[in-house]
Each structure stands twice: as C-alpha cells, then as structure tokens.
Amino acid sequence: MEQLIIGLDNLLEEINEDILDKSSGAKYFGTATITRRDLEKLKATNKKANIKMSGILTFSEDVTPELARETIESVKVRGTIKAPYGVKEVLNIL
After folding, report:
1. Separation CA 57–CA 89 (nearest Å)
2. What is the enclosing helix (H) or strand (E) of 81?
3. What is the mean pLDDT of the chain?
4. pLDDT for 39
C-alpha cells in the first residue's frame, strides 16, 4: 500500500509540473491541486506558468497572493477554481 501511495504522490507531482510548465502548451482535463511547494519549485526556475485546463483547479491554502503573482502569468480554466481569496484577487478570477 505504501508503494502505491508513493507512486500516486509522484504521479500527482508530475501532473502539477506539467500543468505549470509554460513550454508544454498542453491542456488538461480533470482535477489538479497547486501547492506552495509546486510554485516554489517553479519560482526557482525563474519561469511563470500559463495554466490551461478543464475541470477543477485548486490552490492550497498555503499559496500566498505574492507567490501566485510571482509565478503565474495566466490561468484559463473551463470549470471551477478553488483558491484563497487573495490568490483569486491576484489572478483576476473573482
């Protein structure tokens, strides 16, 4: 069971990296949760994300508006975005 959980964690991390990868140009369908850790890894590369997906995009409560501003260029979601109020405000998705 532990191996399965580790495998799922790795898969989720890969999906989040792909969603945040500006160069991929890929669009995704489903659910994704972006965490502070995801955005800090992106920030370390000096890149900004253009997020495009259909489904449910969730920003965890540990994502600050400042970190979102520094790491996300645009967000286009056909579906629902769940995020702390300040993050929604920064991304103009209120």
Report:
1. 15
2. strand 72-82
3. 80
4. 92
